[in-house]
Amino acid sequence: MAEAAVFECRSASVTLGSRQALRLIIEDISFKLRRSEFLTIVGHSGTGKTTLLRMLGGLTPAATGTVMVHGKPLSGPPQDVVIVFQDYANALLQWRTVAANVAFGIERSLSREECRQRVGEALALVGLERNANDFPWQLSGGMQQRVQIARALAVRPAVMLLDEPFAALDAMTKANLQDELLAVRDRTGSSFVFITHDIEEAVYLGDRIAVLNGSPGRLQQIFDVDLDRPRDQITTRALPRFLELRQLVHQAIRNKP
Predict the structure, then answer these.
(1) Residues 221-242 as b or e (16 or more Cβ within 10 Å = b)
(2) Beta strands at 23-33 and 159-163: parallel, antiparallel or unpaired
(3) I want to staple 84 with a disulfide (CB 3.0 to 4.6 A). Which of 45, 162, 200, 209 is the partner?
(4) Going residue by residue through the chain (257 aa), what tens digit of pLDDT does each one get?
(5) d(Cα 25, Cα 217) in Å, to the nearest integer?
(6) DSSP character at residue 6
(7) Of 257, 244, 177, nearest to 209 (Cα)?
(8) 3-class SS at 16?
(9) pTM of the full predicted structure?
């Protein structure tokens, strides 16, 4: 028996705007997200990638079609699905310590001791155990993004939705966080949907790569990434198959419908 999908979209479309000026943003989106899968999404600006992420997060309802989460229709933000945005500086509360930021989503629902334990585990996953009492403004951009990821992990999500989380970071910091995110997936078993404009990042991280194209955005193609794990920033990126997949995805993005 096939494993049930965490998410399943069936011909889902989203329209935005007022009644006088409704605009179709994404159209006829159909795919499944499997447990522990890392799905990367690429495409030109304006193809509806962020709208697709917001739809999966229950923030923007589908106008037509169906979105299922854990086999049930999605009717709002699921408790075990979290979103990590690109703008880490504004996402964090600068007057709260790192530990207090990580606790923000769970402190009202858990006992003090359980909350403390969850925060410690989440900080350990992203390598920030020694920074628990620092404030976000004392940290580098990469470390602040780790805090945002730790805050998401503290919820123990089944799915993490990430909207270009590393776009503003330098190349070395981005590479380190890519590897940490893959390690988090392996340790937690969570599923990931990761938006990026960086094709190499999409290939390096992904189990599959979804290409959105057009306006409204449509799911043009999905590539299986048949690269061995664990992956390495040097050897994996030098593999002929890595270079081939990079070229195929690039061609798919350029070949607008």
Answers:
(1) eebebebeeebeeeebbeeeeb
(2) unpaired
(3) 162
(4) 356 689 999 999 999 987 778 899 999 999 999 999 999 999 999 999 999 999 999 999 999 999 999 999 998 999 899 999 878 778 899 999 999 999 998 898 889 999 999 999 999 988 899 999 999 999 998 899 899 999 999 999 999 999 998 888 889 989 988 998 999 899 899 999 999 999 999 999 999 999 999 999 999 999 999 999 999 999 999 999 999 999 999 999 988 65
(5) 6
(6) S
(7) 244
(8) strand
(9) 0.91
DSSP output for 144-201: HHHHHHHHHHHT--SEEEEESTTTTS-HHHHHHHHHHHHHHHHHH--EEEEE-S-HHH
Nearest to 212 by CA among 34, 69, 86, 25: 25
Which tokens hold the place of 4?
């049930």
Give the phi and the psi of residue 25 in degrees, each rounded to 5: -95, -50
CA distance 185 to 208: 15
Tokens of 18: 């007022």
Q: Do 152 and 163 form a contact (C-beta atoms < 8 A)?
A: no
> In this structure, which amino acid lies at residue 106?
I
* Residue 120, burial from CB neighbour count under 10 angstroms (0-12, 13-18, 19+): middle
Tokens at 17, concatenated:
């705007």
